[in-house]
Amino acid sequence: MLLSLKRLVFLLLITLPVTFKIEVLPGVFLYPQEPLLILIFFIIFFGRKITYLPQFLKPYIYFLFALFFILLSTVLSFFKYIDIAGLFKAFKYFVYLTCILFLAGYDFRGYLKTFNKVALSALLVTLLLYVYNWLTFGGGTSAYLHLTTWDVNYVPSGLSNLNFSIFNFSFSRSAGNHGIYGSYLVLVYLVNLYLLLKKREEVTKLNYILIGLVVINLVLLTSRESLLIFLIVNLFFFIKDIISFRLKKHYLYLLVILVLFINYVLIKDIDFGLISKIKHTIQSYQESGGEQNINLRFRVWMLILLSYSLYPFSLLVGYGYNQLNFVDAIASTNNYYDLYKHYASVPESLFFLMLAYGGLFSLLLLLAFFFQLFNRLLKLKKFSALHELFLYFTIGIFISNNTGGSLMSDLLLAQFSLFYLFLNKWYVQEENFTYYSKG
């Protein structure tokens, strides 16, 4: 029974990329999998199903406590403002991490095949929707490409921000998902890159197809965060080969195609996805010394720090995952210091999110999470190329989440954590096999 329950949790989490959300209350969105996950959480919690945690899950214990402080702060914030959507999100992430800890005893057999099947489905649905919207679009190609750069309803950002409302039986998309989905795409890329370059006997056409689809989808996205992670993974992994000019031929072909494609887009001045976003950023810096979205983020970070001069107790406990409470504190601070006309309404950084929602305790626990995570991954780096690639991916997540919060999302939190569990289970199983063989 326990094994089948773990299998169910695994399947519920790994299939998130191919599922849209349902708006069950105003502002409250649920994956179809989440009611079951919440039920399993209570079974785990009250049934005391987690009896042993291996050492490699130590980072997640820190993360769990960081979320516990956010959950506690959210409950306390209800004395001022009630935010049901915020409370649900805080509780949901706590449920997710509890389920991840519960999977410590799962063997992850066939994980990579399942991962790739889900990824292929997610990519095909996303890109087919992109093509369908293009074919049914009333305007010209240039107008459509412009929309796919700036309009959230047209950006090919997966299914996790596609919401079905039970109130009017219609679909809509929420903003801010392109970095989350783009980071997931990089994870798909590194899995298939590993299989392509390091395990030739296991290479299939699916690996080539997935890498191609990932690159296409990344180019169509407008996520600078995803581009940064993609570059970090590739540069760190191939730095020795790049310096010594020893790149594998198929990877060299991919680079040549990418360079030619980017040059074509730039020469023709096509308003196209990520490239347009980068051009816009460069132009903004040249003309005004900054870029609007980036400026808005810096402003809200400054206001968060200044708010503690007015609300010092919140430095310890935070404002909770309570948008009304947070916005009120930031607006009051801005009015008091008379600083900005415009600023972001959310922290726009994983680290500032922890500080603002859970206080100093949550931020320190998050830093402990990353410290323990890097410590573990550095030890596993030489075990396989996939372990090394995931280390670089984690470095990219750490850097990019300074200006984003992709790890604090259901989709990426689940896929990142499952991948970390798989790598550690693989290492432990091989280590035990070697030990017993020698014995």
UniProtKB/TrEMBL annotation:
Residues annotated as transmembrane? 31-48, 60-79, 85-106, 118-135, 179-197, 209-239, 251-267, 300-321, 350-371, 383-400, 406-423
Q: What is this protein called?
A: O-antigen ligase domain-containing protein
The answer to keyword Lipid metabolism applying to this record is: no
Q: Does the keyword Membrane apply?
A: yes
List UniProt keywords, sorted A-Z.
Answer: Membrane, Transmembrane, Transmembrane helix
Q: Which organism is it from?
A: Adhaeribacter rhizoryzae
Lineage top rank: taxon: Bacteria
